[in-house]
Amino acid sequence: MSGFRKGIVAALSLVALLAWYDGTVAAQSDDDALGQQEEALRQKLKGVLEELDDVRERRRAAGHRESSSPAVREQSSGPEPSAVPEVTLHDIAVISERVERRPTGIAASSTPRSEHESQPTRHLRESLESLPGIVTRQGFGGREVNLSIRGSGAKNGGALRNVKLYEDGISFTDPHGFSRTEIHDPWFLESVEVRRGPSSSLYDNYALGGMVHFRTRRGRDINGVETFLSGGSYGFHKEALAIGKEYGNLDIALFSSYQREDGWREHSEYWISTVNLNVRYRIDDRQSLYVKAVNLDQDEKYAARLTRGQFQADPRQMGGTPATNPVSLNSKLRDRLTLIGAVYERQIDANTLLTTEADYQVRDINQPVGASVTPSFKHYTDLRHNGRLFDLPLRSYVGFFANYSEQEGVNNVNLNDGRASFGPVTQQNRFSVRNIGGRFREELEFTPKWVLAVGLGYERSDISGFVNNFTATTTTSTLNSTVGVNRSYDNWAPDLSLTYRLNRDTNIWTRGSVAYGIPQFTNLTTGLDGNPGFNGAVKPQKNLNVEIGTNTQLTPTFWLEAVGFWTFFKDEIITQSVPLSPTVVGNFAVNAKESQYRGIEVGWRWMPVEGLRFTGAYTHMESKYVRFFDQFAAGGVITRINQSGRQVPAVEKNVLNMKAAYDHAGSGLGAWLEGSWIDSFFVNNNNTLGTPAYLLFNANVHHYYRTHNNRYVKFIKTYVEMDNIFDKAYVSWVQPVADSVADANKQAFWSGAGRSFYAGVTLGF
């Protein structure tokens, strides 16, 4: 019997028991012992109903249980289970039916817990590549992974932009669109949910590709202590600890990990430590409070991007030149990312839910050419209501948000002495970003099988600040210029979808949605040659997405998700890198007047027999510039090139992932084999330099043993894995390079890791 059905049976049994018990108490109200027993039963009933709610939430998030439903599917897969009624126990009202939070008519997929349990958890790519529509690339080292959804987020270096990140309902994206994926340790996760397509009506600024929501395990999932130890090739090792417990209305989960590696490439050693604390407290039957605190510290050396010739000669080399290589420059970063946030929820009545979230986030960056500190504050208040319009079911949502971020930084000359000693100042900056706005959404079920959703978001954004630029030598610096910025932007984002629910396991939807992203402060204060200067011509970017999709259970053992989309960009911000000196690389931005992305996303899951499953995810995307006059400066001369009709760089045309896995329920033995094909793509707007396509194979053998009649050890879980079995040399990540640089000198490529072995063990106490 599934956990969902068990929850219903337990709830009804307890309700019947309490009905009988109330009669007894009425006859013997003076009996203190029975009064205490009644109170205990009330608490049990609340716990069962809360657990039932959570099961239903997780069914909606993952779309299935592994034994009965697909791993990848759109969120709202059919009519909701019948609501468990509100139960009144004298002065206690237990609200069992949560107001639905997940929007209808949006392409979404999520990972099951098994994707995170059987991995070496080096970085997020290992589990996210099993989902359609999202493309993952490992960055220059550590846990950094670049994410791309329908072409957005793929063209940035050093951070993630144009895709919003959340963890347990709290936004981890700065008000100016900056995210770092390495703060999300995959060993902490229960699942990852990806909602695809422009979604600024729901997630405001920078949701051009969609959003990714990470969900950590709860204390009741851990129910004790878990320790994790893993090691492998290139000096990799990781130690992690999870402590979790549920005490009545209080649920606490604490995660901590330390990860270190010598690195696949020369000069790419790193260490990362992460602490993640989650406290959930049910204040009473209608109120709850959730508090989260996360801290990431990392110390990481990084190699230079390689030219095509360097990659072909030796993909493991550090890049650069003999005189100016990453060792003499001591190219490294020492960063700290911290977030503290809280979410307060109040069930106003059985059909209305108020949610208020606030968090403080700070990013402290220290690199060989400078340092910066970026504190941010974000606030969201949302009201959701399940009601009726002319006797038709209507789900309503209205929200307000405000956020603020400021940055103060300084850049210096790197003295190239092997210690990254700071020389004279080359730049000082201080700026702020303010966003304020609101949104609403209505979802009307106008017939039993049809749902119409209409949403609209508005946001006002203000960017202000200044940059002081200096002319510097190794000993002196002189103020050269000051660039000031004071810009305001107003953006609207409508959203419209129509969903047909054929049955519980089959949905068909069509959607049209808009998203926007304002320029970064650095976009406005960097000239076309990559040097400091005013670049006020950069405009906000917007996109319009139209799609049609379905998810369905075709047979009792086969599930399919398929989406076709077409995204139209206006003034897409294209960032390009250009070398400023032998030791410094600059980045500048231009707008592509019109660009388009169109393609299909397919995900499937087949379970022919118990324990055996075949899963796959395929994304095909055509990208091109429709109208784009590229601009760059070289030697003080601005060059314009008509790139209309060219493919957009850093966007793969085809990505395919397939996995075969088997888990034996009796013995706990399991294994999987995985293959991934990544198509080639260009690294420059002129489409003269590209990366080779590649095919990777990974294999994993893991053993899980649950102890019995042991008061000390609850379970032992082990895994052994080999990645890149055939030792394929491939490009894992690129950053678009300006065509002012000859193709032979374009530093664009990061190489992926070669053949590697990993093993690990988890102990539960």
Give the helices and strands, then pairings.
Blueprint lengths: L2 H25 L4 H31 L24 E3 L2 E3 L12 E4 L3 H4 L7 H4 L5 E5 L6 E5 L14 E4 L2 E2 L17 E8 L3 H4 L6 E7 L2 H4 L1 E9 L4 E11 L2 E12 L8 E13 L4 E15 L6 H6 L12 H4 L2 E18 L2 E16 L2 E20 L2 E23 L7 E26 L2 E23 L4 E27 L2 E12 L3 H4 L16 E15 L2 E22 L5 E22 L5 E16 L1 E6 L2 E6 L11 E10 L5 E10 L15 E13 L8 E9 L7 E4 L14 E3 L4 E9 L1
Parallel strand pairs: 6-9
Antiparallel strand pairs: 1-2, 3-8, 4-5, 6-7, 8-9, 10-11, 10-35, 11-12, 12-13, 13-14, 14-15, 15-16, 16-17, 17-18, 18-19, 19-20, 20-21, 21-22, 22-23, 23-24, 24-25, 25-26, 26-29, 27-28, 29-30, 30-31, 31-32, 32-35, 33-34
Helix pairs in contact: 1-2
Key attributes of the depicted protein:
765 residues, Maltoporin, Chain A, 22-stranded antiparallel barrel, 2 domains, 9 helices, 35 strands, 11% helix, mainly beta, 5-stranded mixed sheet
